[in-house]
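Practice set, problem 2.
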Amino acid sequence: MARSTWDSEREAAIIAAKQGGDVLAQWAGRFTTKTKGLNDLVTEADVAVQERISDTLLRKFPGDDFLGEEGSGDETKLNGSRRWIVDPIDGTTNFIHAFPFYCISIALEVDGELVVGVIYDPNRKECYSAAKGQGATCNASRLQVSSSSRLADSLINIGLRADTETSPEAMQAFVRVSGKSRSVRRLGSAALGTAYVAAGRLDAFVSHVIQPWDIAAGVVLVREAGGRVTNLRASQYNLYTRNILVSNGLIHEELGREC
């Protein structure tokens, strides 16, 4: 990978994410809900936002591949060296219930490496962005992970699937970490949870079952904000890993032993 800066791609992703936010606002209160699986929901808004983002990015970068949650692309196949990875609404259940914790997530993968990440929170008008080697920001403010060095002093976000019976280890970890940390949250948006780790609002995010579009942008943000990203066995994370541990780095090993 020869490029050292990704300014053009980062700016394009910011524009696309904010355009997606505008589309999302147009659908507020007038969508219908469909079920893809147990509490795995989708609305017309998810599809409309993804279409707008895809159109914006692929017009500017027509040779790029595209992987979206709503049925675009194959996560196991990369046509070419560059791929945009998009979750049009990360936190669809929250969106459906007008619970204001959801976001738009866009990442760029080049030669198997995540190099750009943008997460846009349309409720707070906060746009988190990062590019490899360029640091991470929220709007105009530089991001830095927290300085908590003990699990006992830390606020943790653990993601839980609706069908917790298929992932009992996640529920067990939730209980264990609740007893050893300051507190644990289940927020309903992995992307926004990782953005909060990058911003120092949370000290860590953990998920035992995760999809590439849930986490790709957040991985870039956390790394560029000084944090650490691995799988739950403390091995290097990649997009085909189905679990993840994201932290400020200082509590990583201690938290990992509980998960």
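Problem 2, part (b): a different protein.
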Amino acid sequence: MLKFLLKRIILLIPVIFIISVMLFGMFKLMPGDPVLLMLPPDLRSQAERDFYYNAYREKLGLDKSIPEQYVAWVGNIARLDFGTSITNNRPVREVIARPLRNSIVLNSFSIILAFVISIPVGIKSAVKRHSFFDSFWQVFSLVGLSVPVFFIGLILIFTFAIQLRWLPAGGMPRMQDDGSFAYFLQWSRHLILPITTLTIGSLAGTTRYVRNAMIEIIGKDYVRTARSKGLNEKVIIYTHAFRNALIPVVTLVAGSLVALFGGSAITESIFTWNGIGRVLIDSLNSRDYMVVLTMNIFYAVLSLTANLIMDIGYALVDPRVKLN
């Protein structure tokens, strides 16, 4: 296992290097001058504009050659210095810290709920194939896959926020974050509708994924052999069949790691939730390149890490998978 991990980590180094070069090159090819966006709006004379322009250009390191800028950027990334946000005039770390935390909390609850519900439902649907239970969840899955996530969110807002007035329509709590229990309750009320929207959106696909995997496994020869030996049906399903059906589920779990930190831009925009997905869209619209560049390299590293975790999960679930 240790040898495999070391080998994979070494192989990731050139991949990360190529991705970083591509992202930095695309960043340089984008139209517009980020220095102009940082200039104070109350400058009157051309001399003042030239002075501040040169000062900000030197601060951003844009007065150096492209290779020097790339080396300096990689060095800053290694020291967890992600530069300065152009539109906020603050370090990128401060800009993304709180939205990233909000997105992690939001997506953690929705992903956990989706898997907690979809795995037993998918197993039962496969075992009771063509029953009313299976037919209901099949229809639910088709509807869930067909309806866009933003439409689900709008329906929930109309029903529970506008008509029933049980929950807030969106946004963050207005009271100050003082760490009190009252703030926690307000924060939880604002979380309910976004979490429900994301859970419904991912529940349909995950349920069908688990169901199809279980149906394929149940039809295998070793399952029929276990039944012919008189083993308990629950032992056959949950001990023998489900472990092999976990292999495709591991793919979903590893893929959810990226979604956990990546935020949900559409849902966060609908509910005006201060998450990283919404920050990324705002940064793209305002051409805040340092935030966009930082988040893209972060997602690239996160995706590579998810693939590594996926390979390890395959080996842990199925002993036939060898880590070599």
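Answer key, part (b): The chain has a mean pLDDT of 81. The chain has two domains: 32-81, 93-317.
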